[in-house]
Design a protein that fits this description.
The chain is built from 11 helices and 4 strands. The chain is α+β, with helices and mostly antiparallel strands.
Length: 328
Amino acid sequence: MAGKSSANRGKRWPAPAFRLSDWFSDHRRAIAETFEFVSLRLGSSLFVWLLVGIALALPAALRLAQQNFVALDDGWQGQPGLTVYFTVGTEPDNVAGVQAQLRQSSSVAAIQLTDAEQALQEFMAASADSSSLTAALVRLPENPLPATLQVSVVSDASLEELGALREQLVGLDGVDEVVIERTWLELLRNLTQLVERLGLILGVLFALGAVLVTAASVRLAIESRLEELRVLSLVGATRAQIRRPFLYFGVFYGLGGAVVAAMLLAITLTAIEAPLTALLGSYDIPVHVHGFGVVFLLTLLGVGMGLGVIGALVAVRQRIRGVQEMAD
């Protein structure tokens, strides 16, 4: 009898047949246990949520910035181009020669000439409220304003192409100055690409950090229930049943971290609203944050939950295998 008893020691009970009602009941049990575990350790849970939230907030903020840079670029009307200023008194033939050279460039979309007389009339019309200034211009012996060319380029023209075109024009006879208009739009596009790539890199790094934080937290939960897990393994619990509560730990930690990240982003947007309004208001650009909506928040919650589950799987995979080996 003693030999038979020792032979049966360590053998697990056979697993029961699968029933859908039992499967749902087990999930409800796992959720209840997870909620109880998290609520009883609220301080440490808040700490995990904060760490995961910070890890999610920065890449999400960079994603929002990239979307708003793109919206700001798309919302700007007009095309980039050049303004050619001629010296005062430049002959019309010189102006026509510059126009002819510009038309030969494949980067040029349109050219608009404002001659000296037209520039003077427009200036006087704009300064009609200042009678003294208008009278002073009338008394001048010659027109003090130069002719100008407004050059619009094709939409896909790069900053390098604009620079090369400017270098061609600067040395021409009668050309005083050539100004590249709205080069900041090109810089904005470069900044958008930089933010996009930086967000991707930091997103991967901080996602790894969130996974490791969740894995460490779930590992502590597993260590606190080792004896219970050994008993469950002996009475026939499957690996899925043993690891299920800890996967819900990952879900709770991930969702909590995503909620914290959304709160941090909302606080940040509120804090920068006033200076952002002042900055964009000087350019007559309305302040509207693109991207921070329902889809963004649901995506943030989904990413947080996914990272939490991955972290839980990392912690559970090796530890549960060890528990079952000890039970065998």
